[in-house]
Each structure stands twice: as C-alpha cells, then as structure tokens.
Amino acid sequence: MSSDFEGYEQDFAVLTAEITSKIARVPRLPPDEKKQMVGHVEKQLEEAKELLEQMDLEVREIPPQSRGMYSNRMRSYKQEMGKLETDFKRSRIAYSDEVRNELLGDDGNSSENQRAHLLDNTERLERSSRRLEAGYQIAVETEQIGQEMLENLSHDREKIQRARERLRETDANLGKSSRVLTGMLRRESTNGEGAEREGDTESEAGSRLGAVSTE
C-alpha cells in the first residue's frame, strides 16, 4: 500500500516541478505562446489534483498506527497545491493585463518589469517556504518514528514481564512437584523397611516353633 503512495508521490513531485517552471515563464512569453502555456498549466493542475485524490485514498487504507506520517505529508502537498494555484492566478492576471495593454496600444514595459520582479521575489519566497516545510516534515516524521520505537519497546517490555511471570509459575510448580515426589519416595522407603521387619519376625517365630517340636 505504501509503495503505491510513494509512486503517486513521485509523480506529484515531477508534475508540480513542471508546473512551477511553466508558471514562472508565462509573463515573459510572447502572447501566442503565453495562451498555449496557460492551457498546458491548467491541464497539469487538474492532473495534480487527481494525484492528490489518489494519494488521499491510499492514506485512508493505511493502518491507523502508521497513518500519521502519511497524513502529515498529505497536508504539505495540499498546501503546495494551493500555492501553485495562487501563483497561477497571479500569472494569469499579469497575462491578462498585458493583453489589455496591447489592445490599448500601451507596451506596458515598466509594468511588466515590475510584475516579473514581483514574481521572481514570490518564487524565491515559495522556495524558502517549501524548504522550511520540508524541514518541519522531517522533524514530524522523526518524532513519529521515535514514538513508534517507544511503543515497540513498551510492547517488548510487557512480553518480557509476562515471560518472567510464566517462569516463576513454572518454578513454583516444579517445586511443588519435587516436594510431592520426595514425600512419595519417603513413604515408599518407610513401607519397605516395615515389610523387612515383619519378614524377620516371621522367620524368628518359625525357628522357635521348629526348635520346640524337635524337643
């Protein structure tokens, strides 16, 4: 199940990287190419949303004890998707403004440069934000792994304690059995000695009777 999720995850990473690159290029393309690029980005955004839906379904199938790490990653991907859509809207606004300026006969070079500068700054901020989110994600995953290790150690300790209790019970049962066997052996020994004494007494009585009859 996790292998399917990781496959979707890789596809999502490749696709979002392509979308980010195309969004950054939109404001600097000629009008015809911009229109075509906008259409490509719209299709890829839909594909990215479908991948997120598939990943979400995979996470729901993962056992609850292992689901936390994947849920955190899903939240990060959804945030990234929201930022891509915001950047695309900004890029489309810049594209629409340029089309309007061309129709009105205004080249809008100064405005275009400002928008390009703003988009570059926005892209740098987004990269910094993604790096921070990646660091946070690593910290969350590390904490999750630590919690799972503590839970496993707790289970192992309980197993060891139960094994010790069973050993104590076994030792106690062996002690009882040993005492019972010792008692049985003592009784057997006592009964044997009594039988020997009775045999000796009978032999002596027989000897005496023999002597009397001889006389």
UniProtKB/TrEMBL annotation:
Keywords: Coiled coil, Membrane, Protein transport, Transmembrane, Transmembrane helix, Transport
TM segment ranges: none
Organism expressing this protein natively: Felis catus
Ranges where the T-SNARE coiled-coil homology domain occurs: 117-184
Protein's name in the database: t-SNARE coiled-coil homology domain-containing protein
Signal peptide, first to last residue: none
Basic and acidic residues: bias regions: 114-127, 185-200
Localization annotation: Endomembrane system
